[in-house]
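Entry:
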Amino acid sequence: MRCDEAQELMSIYLDGELDLMRNLELERHIKACPDCEPVRESALQLRSAIRKEVPYFRAPRSLADRIQGAARQESRQVAPRRPAMPYWQWIGAAAAVALLLVTVKFGRNWIGPSHDQLLAQEIYDAHVRSLMVSHLTDVPSTDQHTVKPWFDGKLDFAPPVVDLAQEGFPLIGGRLDYLDNHAVAAMIYHRRLHYINLFVWPTSDTQNRAPALAVHEGYNIVHWTQGGMEFWAISDVAAGDMQTFAGLLRK
């Protein structure tokens, strides 16, 4: 891949809109290219600053009611013989003014979704997508000694692969996926009639963090860090099963 092509694809890459193999090709180029690496870092810093500093909010319903009331009052005051501004334009103008005032006064007190919340949405999307397109595995195997070496050369880290068949969570394979702007390992486990996607990638967080359970769109998600790795597991199995699954992996 040439530098001009890589830099042209940079914004699409950062938005997560490239296919997986193209992402991997671009990442290999960026790591080896002293010119493209600063371009990516600059774009990532800009995006991070925007997420942290730009206010995120929704206007309350009471604001819409006040705007509509003001628009109706204004429309009644217009002389019958003069061409009146259409009703919807009054609403639009009043809404624009009100929204500007609300943004200036309250915007800094309203905080947008956190990084973990955005990542949980990516985890959910990846899990549902794997079920919808019948693409759970790239390497279907119940043998951890087959799945683990399959990742060699496809990732720049060695994901831990554990078979928990005796504990009721048999491994059924692995695949590559793409989350949080980098390639990750996905291991797939089975629990009765349900599938569990376990996503793993390196983290700069050196502190081991205990599993935290959350519910997103009806799915249970467990997140923890251990041994320099970040773990996200998602499934529609019971919350207790997910906590047991995370506990077994941590051992």
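The two ends are 42 Å apart (CA to CA).
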